[in-house]
Each structure stands twice: as structure tokens, then as C-alpha cells.
From TrEMBL:
<feature type="compositionally biased region" description="Basic and acidic residues">
    <location>
        <begin position="272"/>
        <end position="324"/>
    </location>
</feature>
<feature type="domain" description="Serine aminopeptidase S33">
    <location>
        <begin position="60"/>
        <end position="168"/>
    </location>
</feature>
<dbReference type="Pfam" id="PF12146">
    <property type="entry name" value="Hydrolase_4"/>
</dbReference>
<dbReference type="InterPro" id="IPR029058">
    <property type="entry name" value="AB_hydrolase_fold"/>
</dbReference>
<feature type="region of interest" description="Disordered">
    <location>
        <begin position="265"/>
        <end position="346"/>
    </location>
</feature>
<protein>
    <recommendedName>
        <fullName>Serine aminopeptidase S33 domain-containing protein</fullName>
    </recommendedName>
</protein>
<dbReference type="InterPro" id="IPR022742">
    <property type="entry name" value="Hydrolase_4"/>
</dbReference>
Length: 346
């Protein structure tokens, strides 16, 4: 049942994949050419062929594997990926789930698990990336495949959960237990993650309540100082200066920690303490868990809220400011505006 409401790939896709004459390299249309970006097609173990991009940063020591939100594809995320690679000083791989963008197949929970595995294996086999140098980043529904993979890898450097969900069903209904038909059972997988976890969530998220992020953070074994973005909603956290500032702080901390190669976690002294950021979590009236949410959210409500968020972003046309030296938000180009997760359901 939950799966019926989970996937809303952009239709039509925001890009095409072409083959460059002579060189035989793959290229994405509708995005700016960049010599530091590889476009790839990767086969998953379930038989689908997913499209991925690999953004190279010559000064990078770590690689970020980004699982995007529900109603987005690579064309919409492209500009954000470039910016994150530059300002976090990481290599970055992003990919489209089966049935999203120009990836083949149909979207499903199990396909997304196979998709992230294929992307991860590509990092290892094509680019020689080691597990201990990987940060998994999951946005919204992307927290599902991210935590599924993270729960099975013991030597990851870190995990970032951006507006994550406890589970698919819990987005819609305040259930008190996990049912067999639920999807993305993140609440059951987060305790299995052995690396530092950063959770970022907006306090005014009207699609996935902030209590999802807070409960996941409470269940983390290795808590990193969370970021509760005061006033932030589901689709605009990148517009807040503290978003990139806190991400940079996290990447810097785990890079310096030299996450030990035997699967143990770095000293807690290198991690921030377990108290939430006071600057962004100032006594907002948050719900302690999804079991106490006010009313069940049906799928039509979620679609309407998501589209309202899109309309707000279409009017604002602002981009995040990626410098720590200023708190001003600059105007965001068309592609970057559309890159933020426009979740229609979960």
C-alpha cells in the first residue's frame, strides 16, 4: 500500500543522454558541459540500467554518493551536485533510480536498493574508491536506499540524512509498529549503522515532519551534531546558509578523524556532542515521535503540499549561498531551483 504513493518521477525527464561523436563518451543534454563530470550507464543486479554522474574534484579525499529525493532527476540535481563537489571538496556520484530520468525499468523499493548498490560498486570498480572514503547522502525518500546500504557496510566514513523518513507508512499514518507491507523501514535499520550520522531537517517541514529526523537521530549509534533548520520546509533547506556551513563542518570533521580502517568509529572527541544546534533548534514545538502526530496524511494531501512547496520555490528563484563569509541568499538559476527535492508523497 505504501509503495503506491512512494514514487513520482518527473515526466518527462529533464534531460537526455547522447553519445559524443568520435570520443564515444556519454553526455547529458539540457545541462552545462563540465570537463570534471563523467556521465555513466550502470547495470544493476535486477537488470535495469541506471544513469549516473560522477563529479571529480582534484583536491578531494572523500567521495559522496548522493541518493536524491522523490520527484527529482539528475538533470534537476546537476547544478547542486557541482556546487556541493566544489564547496565540500569531495568527489560526488549521483544517480537516477530505475524509472527516473533516463534510467530503465520501473521504480520500486527493491530496485532502489539494487540501484544504489550498482552506483556504489561503480565507484569501487571504475574509480577505485574505498569503502572507508565514502559518505552516503540520502535526501527524503533517498534516505531509504542510503540506510539500507549503510546498514550493511561496516567501514563507511559517514552518512548524511536530509529530511529523512522513518518509513513510508509513517509519513502518512501515525503507526506505532512496523508492518510487513511498509517500505523503507529506516527506523529499524538506523541502529545498524556504525559510522557517524548527520541528520538535517527543517522544523516547518509539512511533507515529512521534523519528528522523523529527530527520532532517527535519537536511534543513531554514532550521533553527529544535527542541524534542525528553523523555519525550513521540505524543499528549501539548501537556501539556508547554515546548511552548507554545517555540511562543511561535518565533512571536515570526519576527514580529519581518519575513520579507522578496521571498521571502528573515530574518537567521540572528534564528533560534536549530542546536543542539537541551539542556533537552529530554539524551542520550536516539535513532536517527540511520529506516534504523536496530529492527523494521518493521505496521499492527496501530500501531493498538494509538495506542489505548494514547488510553487513557493518557483516564485522565489533563490539559490543557496555557499560561502561561510556571507549569509545572503543569491538568485538561483533555473536548474538549481528545480534541483531541490519536490517530494510528492514521501
Amino acid at each position: 500500500m505504501a509503495a503506491k504513493f512512494a514514487f513520482f518521477p518527473p515526466d518527462p525527464a529533464s534531460y537526455e543522454v547522447t553519445v559524443e561523436k568520435g570520443a564515444g563518451k556519454l553526455k547529458m543534454t539540457e545541462v552545462a558541459e563540465n570537463e570534471n563530470v563523467d556521465v555513466l550507464k550502470v547495470k544493476s543486479k535486477r537488470g535495469t540500467e541506471i544513469v549516473a554522474v560522477y563529479v571529480k574534484n582534484p583536491s578531494a579525499k572523500l567521495t559522496l554518493l548522493y541518493s536524491h529525493g522523490n520527484a527529482a532527476d539528475l538533470g534537476q540535481m546537476y547544478d547542486l551536485f557541482i556546487e556541493l563537489s566544489i564547496h565540500l571538496r569531495v568527489n560526488l556520484m549521483g544517480y537516477d533510480y530505475s524509472g527516473y530520468g533516463k534510467s530503465t525499468g520501473k521504480p520500486s523499493e527493491q530496485n532502489t536498493y539494487a540501484d544504489i548498490e550498482a552506483a556504489y560498486e561503480c565507484l569501487q570498480e571504475t574509480y577505485g574508491v574505498k569503502e572507508e572514503d565514502v559518505i552516503l547522502y540520502g535526501q527524503s525518500v533517498g534516505s531509504g536506499p542510503t540506510l539500507d546500504l549503510a546498514s550493511r557496510l561496516s567501514r563507511l566514513r559517514g552518512v548524511v540524512l536530509h529530511s529523512p523518513i522513518l518509513s513510508g507508512l509513517r509519513v502518512m499514518y501515525p503507526v506505532k509498529r512496523t508492518y510487513w507491507f511498509d517500505i523503507y523501514k529506516n527506523i529499524d535499520k538506523i541502529p545498524l549503522v556504525k559510522c557517524p550520522v548527520l541528520v538535517i531537517h527543517g522544523t516547518e517541514d509539512d511533507v515529512v515532519d521534523c519528528s522523523h529526523g529527530k527520532q532517527l537521530w535519537e536511534l543513531c549509534k554514532e550521533k553527529y551534531e544535527p542541524l534542525w533548520v528553523k523555519g525550513g520546509n521540505h524543499c528549501n533547506l539548501e537556501l539556508y546558509p547554515e546548511y552548507i556551513k554545517h555540511l562543511k563542518k561535518f565533512v571536515s570533521a570526519i576527514e580529519k578523524s581518519g575513520h579507522l580502517r578496521n571498521g571502528t568509529v573515530p574518537s567521540i572527541d572528534l564528533m560534536a556532542d549530542s546536543r542539537p544546534r541551539q542556533s537552529t533548534d530554539q524551542r520550536e514545538k516539535s513532536r517527540s515521535s511520529t506516534d504523536h502526530r496530529e492527523n494521518p496524511r493521505v496521499s492527496t494531501d501530500l501531493r498538494e503540499k509538495s506542489r505548494a512547496s514547488i510553487d513557493k520555490r518557483e516564485r522565489s528563484r533563490k539559490n543557496m549561498e555557499l560561502s561561510e563569509k556571507t549569509s545572503n541568499v543569491t538568485e538561483q538559476p533555473e536548474k538549481a531551483r528545480n534541483s531541490i527535492d519536490r517530494l510528492a508523497s514521501t
